[in-house]
Design goal:
Elements: H1 6-12, H2 23-32, H3 46-55
Helix pairs in contact: 1-2
């Protein structure tokens, strides 16, 4: 299986209209993996992706005016 990216995982969590796609996921990953090389691409395996999906809060639905 191909690796997952923070942008893909953020979309699965409902973050679709952010100015910096995937930022919420990358912020979580920086806390969990502090030794990750700065500015290196995040490529996550299934276990890591499952961890993100279980621990990063889902986006709140946008309310209609």
């Amino acid at each position: 299986m191909e690796p997952y990216t923070p942008v893909e995982l953020a979309r699965l969590l409902g973050y679709r209209h952010e100015a910096r796609p995937g930022l919420v996921v990358r912020s979580y990953l920086r806390k969990v993996y502090p030794n990750h090389i700065k500015n290196a691409r995040w490529e996550l395996n299934e276990a890591q992706a499952a961890d993100v999906l279980a621990n990063v809060p889902r986006a709140k639905p946008e309310s209609s005016p």
